[in-house]
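Its record is quoted verbatim for completeness.
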Amino acid sequence: MELEREIGELIITSLNLEDVAVDDIDPEAPLFGSGLGLDSIDALELGLAVHRRYGIAMGDSEEVRQHFASVRRLAAFVAGARQR
């Protein structure tokens, strides 16, 4: 899915992940913890990057956790928000 690839590129560039390629990111893998290994500071930076790129504001912390579960979930959130 093109949007998943775009989200992967956004993650890499906004978080300066120099050793990670888009193809290295499994769209189903968790972004935090055992997956890509992002932390809460990364979540804030990624939330700002999503807002700047797509004009989408993130909601409360529980909602953000759900949307940031994986690249696929984040892409689905962005796609849904674009349709509104």
